[in-house]
Amino acid sequence: MRCKICEADAVVHLPQHNLALCEKHFIARHRKVVLDTIRKFKMFTLDDRVAVAVSGGKDSLGLLHILKSENFDVFGVFIDLGLGEFQERVNQAVQRFSDEFHVDIVRYSLKEHHGVDLPEIAKRRRKQSPCSFCGTIKRYLMNKIALENGARVLATGHNLNDETAFLLANALRWDSEYLSRQSIVLQSTHPKLLKKVKPLAFLTEKETAAYAFLTGIDFVRESCPFSKGARLFALKRTMTQLEARSPGTKLRFYREFLSFKRDHLPEPGSVQLNGCEICGYPTTARVCAFCRITQSL
Ligand code: AMP
Ligand code: ZN
Ligand code: ZN
């Protein structure tokens, strides 16, 4: 196949756009999609200090790479959950990226700061899926570490596959609360809660993987060993099957959702936020979910 722009050998084929591109034109288009998303949804500008939450995977490292190359005031935030050998590979990948591309990445270790790692918490909470409290811990720490390092906005590497799998899960239950909260931009509702944005939301996993590969980012390919069998994987597979039969399904599903939501779904209800009695960060309860997890041990 030939590049649609320059006729050179194409390296990536994007059936959902009926487009084949060479390396140079794929990279240029990929970055343009990210920059257009940032602009269109008023995520941030060159004047804002932006933190990218990095997991060591292709999405978040690729996003950090793009923002750094486009001269944004950007740094990475990385939560070390103490996940054994997997964690060591992740830590090495993040460190290599930071050295090679000259980007600051703040590492925060759960064990060093709170005395426990995720496997220890999981052992004591056998009845709960590790993904549920892991999510609580990550969300809390990403916000806190980004804020303490001067960020105004927190960007995550969620891609179109992630967003459409969440969307399918929420739609299957007609969960109006979750549907109205599923956003590409989540505004700050408290001085200690950063605005959250997803600049990769219109790009598939295939595209983010190709970008990381072509720009020489050495990322961790495996997913977290704790998340095996998670329900979201099944939903992702289903979406990918639908996409294979009808290219563009994911993009249409997500785009149509965003415009439906804008016109027909109420804004998420505002909740009363107080300072957590232990850490001072906003919560609807007396003690926040993060402190409840770490204090109960
Ligand atoms: P996941 O929930 O693992 O699918 O990750 C979704 C997004 O959360 C990633 O793209 C990252 O932006 C962020 N993230 C995941 N794990 C970490 C981590 N350990 N530290 C910081 N950010 C993370
Ligand atoms: Zn080309
Ligand atoms: Zn707290």
Strand content: 5-15%
Which molecules are bound besides the chains?
adenosine monophosphate, zinc ion
Oligomer state equals single chain
Fraction of residues in H or I helices: 40-55%
**Number of helical regions:** 12
Number of strands: 10
Strand order of the largest sheet: 5-4-3-6-8-7
The unreliable regions are none
* Classification by helices and strands: alpha/beta
The largest β sheet comes out as: 6 strands, mixed
Mean pLDDT: 95
Task: Please give the radius of gyration in angstroms.
Answer: 19 Å
Explained architecture:
With 297 residues, this protein is of the alpha/beta class. Helices cover 49% and strands 12% of the residues. It has twelve helices and ten strands. It has helices at residues 23-40, 58-69, 84-101, 110-114, 118-124, 130-148, 160-172, 176-181, 205-214, 231-245, 249-264, 289-295; strands at residues 12-14, 19-21, 49-53, 73-80, 105-109, 153-155, 185-186, 195-197, 274-275, 282-283. The strands form three sheets. A six-stranded mixed sheet has the order 5-4-3-6-8-7, sandwiched between helices. α2 (58-69) links the parallel β3 (49-53) and β4. α7 crosses α10. The radius of gyration is 19 Å and the shape is globular. The mean pLDDT is 95. One zinc ion is lined by residues 3, 5-6, 8, 21-22, 24-25.
